Amino acid sequence: MIANYLYKSAFGFIFLSLLVSCGSKEKAAPGKAAKRPDPSLDVFIAKTESFVDEIEVPGTIVANEVTEVYPEVSGRLIQLNVNEGKTVEKGALLAKIYDGELSAQLKKLESQLAIAKSNEARAARLLQIQGISQNDYDATLLNLRNIEADINLVKTDIERTEVRAPFSGRLGLRNISPGAYVTPATVIATINQVSELKIDFSIPEKYIGHLTEGQIVHFTVQGSSEVFSAKVYASGSNVEVNNRNLMLRARVLGSTKGLVPGVFAKVQIGFKSNNNAIFVPSQAVMPTAKGKRVILYKNGTAVFNDVEIGARDSARVEIVSGIKSGDTILASGMMTTKENATIKIGRIID
């Protein structure tokens, strides 16, 4: 009897528990269907500002003139005046090649010239008194002119044995020693005109229309805190296909102390200022298959809008077209926001 009572009590407890559990589920069910509140998102108010686009590109310092000095003829060096690292004037004798044979030929021809001049003078007097024919005089004169031409040729050959500085500049390291046998392929030294320096650099093709001849650029070099200036005076005739850059050349202004041809330089280029530039946070711009896009907040809904971007810095991107001053742009939750979705502003960021 006791056992029967316990069995009925246990059965009633289980039934009651199931009833309570079902009631709890029935009360919780309506909660699942409840709509979640709209998320609060950060937004940015677009506004215009003054902006000067600047870029930094690598450059190379180059001499105004630079060339390798070669002899014009083959022979043995009998004189070498290459003072390494020193400045020389235009026309200074740098090297002399043996010219003994040429000098001997010149003396021989000069002796022949003296006799030829005497013969021509005698023939001229005879021609005046009709002592000889015109043909005889012409032959004497021709012999004189041939000797004079031969002398000029030998003198030219002797001049070619002298290697002179093509312009005023600084000599580099010499590659030969006195007594060496040289040919027209032998480099005696390199000379750089460092009294005036230039700088070569290149810019991306999108900036070609913004950089003009006569514009001033600034640059720095390693090992010096000085900021140098240069004036653009020439550009390449075409854009390089491999990197889509245009080569430019500028003339260094002012002092060139501390600058050496060939050194690396960092060139800062500033373009024309824009007083109506619009910048937005970098995270507000989304990449698409066709370009870039931002999400505008209009009347409580999300509106997707394609934009064209320009310059950028570490945290912002310039919008060239696609939005205007006063537009409200989403700065968070872009990846989860759908077109025409209802959105709620949480806070306005600067």
Brief characterization of the structure:
The protein is α+β, with helices and mostly antiparallel strands and 350 residues long. The protein has three helices and 19 strands. It folds into four domains: 41-51 and 275-349, conserved putative lor/sdh protein from methanococcus maripaludis s2 fold (Beta Barrel); 55-63 and 191-272, Efflux pump adaptor protein, beta barrel domain (Elongation Factor Tu (Ef-tu), domain 3); 75-97 and 162-187, Beta Barrel (OB fold (Dihydrolipoamide Acetyltransferase, E2P)); 99-160, Helix hairpin bin (Helix Hairpins, Orthogonal Bundle), CATH 1.10.287.
**CATH hierarchy, class of the largest domain:** Mainly Beta
User: What is the string of helix and strand elements?
Assistant: HEEEEEHHEEEEEEEEEEEEEE
Poorly predicted ranges:
1-35
Largest sheet: 6 strands, antiparallel, barrel
Radius of gyration: 45 Å
Spatial separation of the terminal alpha carbons: 82 Å
Number of helices: 3
How many domains? The number is 4
Tell me, rounded to a whole number, the average pLDDT. Answer: 86
Helix content: 10-25%
Q: What's the name of the CATH homologous superfamily of the largest domain?
A: Efflux pump adaptor protein, beta barrel domain
The neighbouring-strand order within the major sheet is 2-9-12-11-10-13
